[in-house]
Amino acid sequence: MMISESQHEKYLTRFTNGMLSAYADTTKNKGGLEQGFRPHELLEAALACCMNMSLRMNAEKLCIPLKEMKVQVSLNRENSEQSTFEYSVSFGESLLYEDEQKLLTALEYSSVRSTLSKPLAFKLINEKANL
Questions:
Q1: Which of 13, 39, 55, 126 would suit a FRET pair with 92, their CA atoms being 20 to 30 Å apart?
Q2: Which residues cross the membrane (predicted)?
């Protein structure tokens, strides 16, 4: 569970899981101070981190030597009917084509991607929650 708390600065928000925390904010043209991640960047980060971990876990499981790898995710919201997570993966070293394909196939089953691929619903569970 994540909790977000308003800060004194206009839209700056601290978010925490109780152990770690970071800040979110909005852009200056929307009244923010750009002192934290934008909320959509956090969606991108969640998917990118999960994909990165999934690739490394699968490389380990398949005994594929993977020393360095980078995942980049961008949320394209240009289409009003559908948002699209666009991603790229770069491997820091030369891998066999077949090993790259095995690892890239595993991305289709990463947990955050699976969650985001399902229909989402929103439910207020307590209007006056004492957080």
A1: 39
A2: none
